[in-house]
Structure formats: C-alpha cells, structure tokens
Amino acid sequence: MSNKYLKYRKKEFLLLNQRRIEKQHIIRRKKKYSGDAKRDYLPSSRLTRPEPSRKLRTKNPLSKKIITIPRVFSLAENSDETLLFFSDLRDAVFKKRVSEILIDHSAIGIIDPPAALMLISETMRIRVCAPRCVLSCKLAEDSLVAELLEKLDYWKMYGYRRNHNSELNEQLVMKATNNFTLPEVVKNIIVDFSDCCTFSVPQKKMLFKGIVECMDNVMSHAYPSKFKRMWLKQQWWLIAYKNRTERKISICFYDHGLGIPGTIRTRLRDNLILLKRSDEDIIKEAVMSGCYSRTKLETRGRGLPKLYDIIDGTEFSGELSLFTGNSHCRFNEYQEFFPQRLTNGIHGTLITWNLFPKNEH
Fold it and tell me: In the predicted model, is pLDDT for residue 55 greater than 80?
C-alpha cells in the first residue's frame, strides 16, 4: 500500500470516531433532560432511589413540652420537687431533644436565692449549648417572685421587662457571672452589706479569701477537659441577697462542674471499693479540716473551711449549705453536720452561706 492510501484511511478513521463521540454526547444530553440519565448505571432498567448510607433523622414526636415550676420553688424547703424540675428540664433539652419548651412560672408562690440562681444558670446553658431549642415562658403571677426575678435580669432572657414595684425596697439583690476570677465583686458585696450585717476585719478577710478561693477552684478543677458534658466552660454564678428589715443575708455560689467529691477524691483510701467512703463523709472532712487539695500546695484547699469560719459569728447565727452531685450537707455554727442523700442531684456545686439574727435561729 502506498503512503497516500494509508493517510486517507487514517483520516477517515478519525472522522468516523469523532462522529461517534458526538452522537454519544447527543444521546446522553437527551437522557439528561428526559430524566433517564442514570439508566446506564443501574442494574435494572427501572430507575430506583438508592438506600441512604445512614438513617435519616426523623422529627421528634415531642416537639413541644410544658414544664411547670412547683409552688414552693426552694432548695431549703422543697428540695425534692425543685431538683426534679431541673432534672426534667435537662432531660427534655439534652436527652429527648425537645424542640420547644414552655416554662410555666405562674404557680410559684415562694422562691429562694439558690433556686433562682440555678434557674438563671440552667437557662443560660440551654441558650448557649442548645440554641435549636426554643425557650418560652409564662410569667409569674406573684408580684414578689416576679420582681425578684426581674432584679436578677431573668425576664430579659425571654424578652420581657416588668416595672419595678416598691414591695422589695427593703431587699437588695446582686448578681454576677463570669468565666474568670473577679475579686472586686466580693469587695462590693462586703461594702454593700455592711449596713445589714456587721463584719469584723478578720471576718471580711475570711469572706473575701473564701469566695475568691471558690472562683479559683472553678478555673482550676471544676471543668476538666476530658469530661464530656453540656456546660459553659469555667463559668460560675454568684448571688448576694440581703433583707434590711429582717437583717438576713445570703450568698450563693454555683458552677456546673464535676462537683466537690469528683474533684477531691485524690487519696487511695477514698477510691478503694472496700474502704471507699461516702461523698458526704468526704465533704465533711474537706469543710472541717480542709485537708483535700489536688495541687498539694499549702496555700490551696482552704476555701471551704474559710467559708465555714464566717458562720461562727457573735452577733449573727450562720449556716453553710452545700449541694453537690447527689449530696446535700449543712453545717451550723455549733459544728453540727446534717447530711442528706438526694434522689435528683444537681450538676456541679451550689454553696449557700446564710446569716441571720440569733433570736430567729
């Protein structure tokens, strides 16, 4: 064969191949617009939808839930129902993943500062850690309860604003929350409460060091990085409440951390199965002697004993109350210890320090 003939055949082959490719493009384009583009890739001629690789999330049947706060919303007088409310609220948000929750405040007739502090902290945690959950509320009907929560800026989280009445003029409420130590907050409490409770110079120093120690413990031990929980890292809440008429003051400190037993179980005898002591016994020893410290430093481990030293005053009687995990421990100025095991525990540690006149104790 001549070279001329071979060149002709090669040119003809290239032309036929180009036409074949163009024809395939036309066919595929027609299949695309007719909805049969995937026919060539399916085992059968019928177009079927492939099974998903994972289960698709279905809508939660509990899309809305109403949770009612008990009439006596107090950890001192009605701890069981109060803690049950917080347990139901956490389960609905973080376990059942309800998309909308209505918190009914209308039945509240009595409220104390520790319960109000926990309510504020749990609402803040839901807003930050579960933003998909829509929170709404029904306002409190009792004027004293509504105004107390208003002074704590609680209704602002729901977009409500109430007018202040004159019924709580004899009472002062201070609220603080942050994720680092604020010594100036403790100084303001001591100065503002001096007209209601006379603190001696040593008592002022012990009160200052004790609360600052609680803030430092939150920064150092309360929120370990390995522990998985829906919380606001290194966040603490503080409420200071005083009543000039009755001369009563209350200071509440709260965090969502591991709790006192979980952070101070550093000794071998506290973790052995046969010698393991209860959480209440460990809390008692930590408060009365202050011998527990994870850092092993001489300057640490004295926060709880310093808070207990404050209640041993001359003019006022005092009580130190600790809620941590499933334990509730109370101490009075006579070094008496009252432990209680809780059915519904709390997340973290709630420390409440109360002072009141001795004739009303």
Answer: no
